[in-house]
Design brief:
about 475 residues; alpha/beta; D-Amino Acid Oxidase, Chain A, domain 2; FAD/NAD(P)-binding domain; eight-stranded mixed sheet; globular
Length: about 475
């Protein structure tokens, strides 16, 4: 191991970190709900107890209070990506304005408006129903931490300003005045582009809201298969009691990065493991050393980037950068802890905040992100239009999943809507190559991304991918 101060601090700080998700490692976690007790029927079956599934169930009942909605979750609500992310709730539906303007220039104004409306609707739900999500409308900082990021960050600021965003530019003294990191060179604040929340408490609050609206919600109930039967769908489910069948008129799939029952989705969604650290609460003196009075969520301008924010009890969540795809698209509990990734993150943390030497990490974890080759969700239907899906949020699902669920519900109607007519909804992303080619291609792409971050040059491979509007991200 390197003998640099940051490497030594990192190893010491990680020594007692619990291999558990901070958000769900709490004594007031809701008790498990019972599995589906037997065969059943419903108007709408929602598969997945993450944000997409919860929002689909809630919005279905809000649209039609008399609809019989059944939501099933293979494990427990918030056990997947919805309960183990950074808690950034972004307005963007397009993986950022820069990507959206380049990919859908003719629709970007409408997508921006839909994104802001969606973020406002999430906050309104939290406020109206008193969901204890620790919601903070902080906005977000994008910072440059290397010379070749300066131009990208400035161009992003100019683009945001051109589209009327509420943004503020900071030079090096200004940005370090907001948050005191010696790595910062410049950056800007997007005041209305994001909020931060406790994602598990948000999910638990939405599940409670679904209960109150009359949704039947069963955990430890796993979908095994779907088949079209007449005008409906038969779903075979597995519980501790064995196999059961649910007859549903319609189905919404919100399975995120988990292996989908619809095999077609495996070509388009790549499970990428992201890793996260959480510090112990900062003292008043430590907070004073770094500033951060605005409590903004922060991301840097690299392709391999860090994201970080303060929690309600003044811990720092620090994640990102080292995104890993595992051969065969593996998604399993054993992959959630990766010592090399956590040590790398800890070292980077103390490079960003050397004044916090001695601060320790309380938790370390990881989880799978559902990424597509265009970094934005994929939508569609199956089994004669009776099954709809919304998957592939690529790290921004805490916010955009509510809109994704609305799109899935719109698709089930079979009638065109403002959402379903969008090019981003109608067109699929480019599929990833199948295994065994997929793993070496992704590994090579990751190496080229790292090279680009260190040199500032895209190189022939990334330039080629850019030309076709595809890539690898988390």
């Amino acid at each position: 191991m390197s003998s640099t101060p940051t490497a030594r601090w990192a190893a010491t700080a990680l020594a007692a970190a619990r291999p558990a998700v901070f958000w769900t490692d709490t004594p007031d976690r809701p008790p498990a709900r019972e599995a589906l007790p037997g065969d059943s029927s419903c108007d709408l079956l929602v598969v997945g107890g993450g944000f997409t599934g919860l929002w689909a169930a809630i919005q279905a009942k809000q649209r039609d209070p008399g609809k019989h909605v059944l939501l099933i979750e293979a494990r427990q609500v918030a056990i997947g990506a919805s309960g183990r992310n950074g808690g950034f709730v972004a307005a963007s539906l397009t993986h950022g304005l820069d990507h959206g303007a380049a990919s859908w220039p003719g629709e970007i104004d409408r997508l921006l408006a839909l994104g802001q409306d969606n973020l406002a609707a999430i906050e309104a739900t939290v406020r109206e129903h008193a969901i204890d999500a620790r919601w903070e409308a902080t906005g977000q900082l994008l910072v440059s931490v290397s010379p070749h990021q300066d131009q990208h960050v400035r161009a992003s600021f100019d683009l945001h300003r051109r589209f009327g965003a509420d943004v503020q530019w900071y030079d090096e003294p200004g940005i370090r005045g907001r948050v005191a990191s010696p790595t910062y060179r410049c950056g800007f604040l997007d005041r209305a582009g994001a909020a931060v929340a406790d994602p598990a408490r948000l999910a638990w609050g939405l599940a409670a809201l679904a209960d109150r609206l009359g949704v039947r919600l069963h955990e430890h109930t796993e979908l095994v298969s779907l088949s079209a039967e007449g005008t409906g769908v038969d779903a075979v489910l597995r519980t501790g009691r064995g196999l059961q069948t649910v007859r549903a008129r319609d189905v919404v799939l919100g399975t995120n990065a988990y292996p989908p029952v619809l095999r077609r989705l495996r070509h388009f969604v790549l499970p990428v493991y992201d890793h996260v650290l959480m510090t112990e609460p900062l003292s008043a003196e430590q907070l004073a050393q770094i500033g951060w009075a605005g409590r903004e969520g922060i991301g840097d301008g690299g392709h391999q980037f860090h994201y970080y924010r303060l929690t309600s009890d003044n811990r720092i969540l620090w994640g990102g950068y080292d995104a890993n795809y595992h051969r065969g698209g593996a998604v399993k509990v054993a992959l959630e802890q990766r010592d090399s990734s956590h040590l790398l993150l800890a070292r980077h943390f103390f490079q960003a905040f050397p004044q916090l030497e001695g601060l320790t990490f309380s938790h370390r974890w990881g989880g799978a992100i559902d990424t597509t080759s265009r970094f934005t969700p994929m939508f569609g239907t199956a089994l004669g239009g009776r099954v709809a899906y919304a998957v592939g949020y690529t790290g921004l699902g805490v916010g955009s999943s509510r809109w994704g669920a609305a799109v899935a519900l719109d698709l089930l109607t079979g009638e065109p809507t403002e959402n379903t007519e969008l090019t981003m909804v109608r067109r699929r992303p480019v599929p990833f190559p199948p295994e065994p080619v997929r793993y070496p291609v992704v590994a090579f792409t990751r190496r080229e991304i790292a090279r680009s971050d260190s040199t500032g040059r895209r190189g022939w491979w990334l330039t080629l991918l850019d030309r076709f509007g595809v890539g690898f991200d988390s």
